[in-house]
Amino acid sequence: MKKITLTKLLFILFCIPSFLVAQQKASQEFTKCLTDTYNAELLEEHPNMMGSESFRQQLNSKIQELANSPQRRVVVEIPLVVHVLHNGEPIGTGANISDAQVLSQITVMNEDFRRMIGTPGYNTHADGADVEVEFVMAQRTPDGCPTNGINRVNICQDGTNQADVQFWKSQTVWNRDLYMNMWSSKYVGDLAGILGFAQFPGGPAATDGVSAGHTFFGSSDYDDGSFQLSPPYDRGRTMTHEVGHYLGLYHTFQGGCGGGDDVDDTPAVDSANYGCPTGHVSCGTTDMIENYMDYTDDTCMNIFTNGQKARVQSVLSTFRSGLATSNGATPLSPVDNDAQVSIECLTTIPCSSDINPNIKVENWGSTTLTSATISYDIDGNGAANYNWTGSLGYGEYDLVTLPTITASGGNQTLNVAVTNANGAADGRTCNNTDSKSFSASGSFSTTEVRLTLVPDDYGSETTWQFKDENDTVLFSGGPYTDDDSTPVNEVFPLSASGCYTFTINDSFGDGICCEWGNGSYELRTDDDAIIFSGGVFASVEDTSINVSSLSVEEFVLDNIVLYPNPTNSVLNISVSNNELPDSYSIYNMLGQTIATKQISSNADLSINSSQLSNGMYFVKIIKEGSSVTLPFIKE
User: Does the domain at residues 6-255+305-325 carry the CATH identifier 3.30.70.1350?
Assistant: First the structure.
């Protein structure tokens, strides 16, 4: 993970009781909320966000200002979008949760924040408050297109860890000043056992919002038979809790008895409560186990206090003021024909320049969509049409697999566009196009692959491998030194044509560009033609390379032999017709140059290998700009 500096460490220590309890109870309890550790990590890069002294002072000043104001504040409506991250499952299956499950979550949040009579969100506690916040589904996208507030995104992978969630948040987030962003996804890996997490006010815009595992998103109180929820966290209180964080609330057990959550009417709690331990006493007072900001079971929770309300209202007046004036929930005027097209998944075929694109066709017109023409091309060239037919009502969609497309290889872009809907002009243009970059395997004539790698600030997270078509690792590298962006140059000599794969890994899952340094990497041929360049990825990125020939003149291919091979002393380069090569270089398995020799006589064709360690090496032999690379083994 990224470095934890002193500022972060102090924040984590302030928040640590929840983690100690979670570790002690790991065999019995969920570690419900990852919010404290997540935001401690962000605090270093965003030193004025919630958790800082400057934030506390500014917020306390606003709380006092609102307390002295004679005007009654109106209910704040917050437009929200729910990004459902899935792996292509049918709606209502797996991580692709149903519309009803999504909407049940919003219902619960409104019941809880409004303290609605006759619902599980009502309480008779003397300090219980109607927070005067309501949540409404977005009706228009940031681009001004219609939506129902549910944004389904096929991430083409089965589950997400924390780094994956962060990556997909940054790829899907809507303007955080106009919408509250919520994400539901299948948690795996380092999120296993976590219910959800939120970003405190003042953090980075690209990841702002709240996230939860899909089995903790929604309420079984409104189950239509399609819900997939995990008791005792099946009544929607995970998101009520996380939205509380998003709106400026700490855990009630923040800092234990000596800490506090900066709210006067929530009693101090020594550590997180689980289950529903009615009457539990800590810090000399009875714990408010019903508070949404504790860790108790969903059916136990039903209280936000007046002090918490004041804090939320102050956050909405300052750090999240744009939500109150957003038009995100204002419907657009209807149009008859409005087809939307987007790229779902774009599958590249390893060691081939072919791609198999899946696209989504949606209807946002008031008339049933029965036909649409979809134009598609690569880099603006060779446009073709796909004629879709079907029957889609408002908000419905269909998934389509386009014919296999043969690209030219390397970095390219697939473009898709709607050219008509129901045989007529489309009523809106804001949702008529989509593009997605990809890298297809190109075919190259080269004797070697050259790598230039610039690490980001956390080079210790970066490793790579170069493999042949038998999945044999020929070369590998990393990890590197943190805070050292010195370019790394490697050469991979090729001994045969065929398919090779370069794989780069980032152990933290945030690639090597660009939030933590402008890292990058580039693969080139022996004449410096670019094969691929990148740096923006999550945990791993593969680039396959088709080597069609070694681009060597006939004399090299036909007349050069290494012997004896394997060798334990002298290795000889045998040529015919007395046609001497110009030079040779020896490389190890890491692509590092071991020796270089200019050839002027037959005596220079004998290589003393006695000083080499046992293992495989490569000899790159050059003649008039052409070259061949041959392997040998030192025993």
Answer: no
What DSSP string runs through 224-274?
Answer: -S-----TTS-BSHHHHHHHHHHTTPPPTTTTGGGS--S-TTS---SS---
d(CA 530, CA 523): 6
Q: Which CATH class is domain 554-634?
A: mainly beta
Beta-bridge partner residues of 96: 93
Q: Cα separation of 147 and 168, whole Å?
A: 20
For helices 17-24 and 35-43, the axis angle rounded to 10 degrees is 140
Burial class (CB in 10 A: 0-12, 13-18, 19+), 611: exposed
* Crossing angle between the packed helical segments 99-114 and 237-246, to the nearest 10 degrees: 60
Domains 6-255+305-325 and 339-440 in one fold? no
Tokens standing for residue 385: 């049409």
State which fold the 443-549 domain adopts: Immunoglobulin-like (2.60.40)
CATH of 339-440, picked from 2.60.40.10, 3.40.50.960, 3.40.50.2300, 3.40.50.1110, is 2.60.40.10
Q: How far, in Å, CA of 384 to CA of 532, rounded?
A: 26
CA distance 549 to 534: 25
Distance of alpha carbon 448 from the chain centroid: 33
Among 385, 622, 404, residue whose Cα is nearest residue 527 = 622
Q: What are the tokens at 529?
A: 């033609």
- Domain positions in the chain are 6-255+305-325, 339-440, 443-549, 554-634
Taken in order 581, 582, 586, 591, the sign of the CA dihedral is: negative
Radius of gyration of the chain (CA): 30
What amino acid positions are annotated as catalytic residues? 242
Give the DSSP per-residue string, 390-446.
EEE-TT-EEEEEPPPEE--SEEEEEEEEEEEETTB--S-STTSEEEEEEEEPPEEE-
> Which one, of 431, 419, 478, lies nearest residue 451 by Cα?
478
**Average pLDDT value over all residues in the chain:** 88
For the stretch 97-141, pLDDT in tens is: 999 999 999 999 999 999 999 999 999 999 999 999 999 999 999
If one counts every other C-beta atom within 10 angstroms of the C-beta of residue 409, the result is 19
Instruction: Give ∠ CA 385-387-391 in degrees, rounded to 5.
Output: 150
pLDDT at 454: 96
Question: Which pLDDT belongs to residue 619?
Answer: 85
